Known about the structure:
It is built from nine helices and eight strands. It is α/β, with parallel strands linked by helices and 231 residues long.
Amino acid sequence: MLKENLREVEGRVEAACKRAGRDVSEVTLIAVSKTKPVEDLQEIYDAGKRDFGENKVQELCAKMEVMPQDIKWHMIGHLQRNKVKYIVGNVALIHSVDSFRLAEEINIQAKKKGIVVPILVEVNIAEEESKFGVTREDAMELVRQIATLDAIEIKGLMTIAPYVVEAEENRPYFRKIKELSVDIAKQNIDNVSMDILSMGMTGDFEVAIEEGATMVRVGTGIFGKRNYQNT
Length: 231
Ligand SMILES: *Cc1c(COP(=O)(O)O)cnc(C)c1O
């Protein structure tokens, strides 16, 4: 049953790519499995998915321990500096870097392990008070600062668009962050590429793809509604 959800979402990803004249290989669908039991993750794994997203370090680490080794884990939630050490080297990508202090800690842990850590800079594109992320105005400066840290590689930007009923309402925000990523790419900063644009969730991933998303993060559409009472 979860497998059917996955296939349905994959079909919609494909259709959105077609509409936008993009190749489906340009877009990675991340299965956002937060709050869901490992049995559910295993079902989606067995259906072929290898990219999973989690938003809490403890839950991510617990699942990582029991799930197959070839999964690419994406840290998509707000990250505290004291938790960085648990995920550096274990996740494929950290989507949620929104301060220099956090980046510095990632850099320290990366050096300890002798690795270079790929990250995205999180931008609060709609400037919602409830959301993390750097403002659009401050993004360029933060990218420049983080780029000086030699054990970090900036791969692009991430945003969480507002919760809306009509996905179209988020199109202007997706456009804005795409523009920002193009502006940053033009600066040709060392250690910085803007190949990844992580945006779009269950309610708006098709619009996000039409506007240039290269990673979409879909939870509810694949795993069903979340029950936060149990977590
Ligand atoms: C929970 C979450 C998602 C997935 O949300 P859905 O609406 O369930 O698809 C995507 N991105 C982030 C950062 C999340 O925390």
